[in-house]
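Protocol step 4 of 5: obtain the predicted structure for the target chain.
Materials: sequence only (see below). No template structures provided, no constraints applied. The aim of this step is simply to have a reference model before the mutagenesis design in step 5. Sequence pasted as it appears in the construct record:
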Amino acid sequence: MQLSPRRRFLWAFFFCWVPILRSKMAKNSQTQCCECVSFGAWHSSQCENPANMTHEGNHYCGIHNPIKKQQRRDAQKKASTKQQAEQESHKRLQKAAPEMLNLLKIAVENCKYPDWRLSPDWVLEADTTICKAEGRDFFGRDNE
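Step 4 output (structure tokens):
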């Protein structure tokens, strides 16, 4: 059975276009998130997620909630500063490792003799090397 052009148009309109238009109208009736989302360098549009909270008069979805965004940034910053501190302490230990190895060799070599005692110069040198490895000066102040 062949449909006339008019019936074909009506069928396409009511069964294809009307559901699409209804869904778009239903989306527009809800409040949307006001945040702008970018797709690449040149394309951006408004976030299509429904808003579930209001902050300072603007509507936001769960993803673009400014309070949660700030909490995520703070957590990320805290983690990065912790990682940076660990890397710096590792670098200090690597710098002091050759000196500590030399001092340890001297101590082991001299411990073979029963009458050996630590010389004050050796103790001072060992103490300053340990302080350098820990990131502080000889008097206990932090070197930063």
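Step 4 remarks: Helices lie at 5-29, 66-110, 120-134. The first strand starts at residue 36 and ends at 39.
Proceed to step 5.
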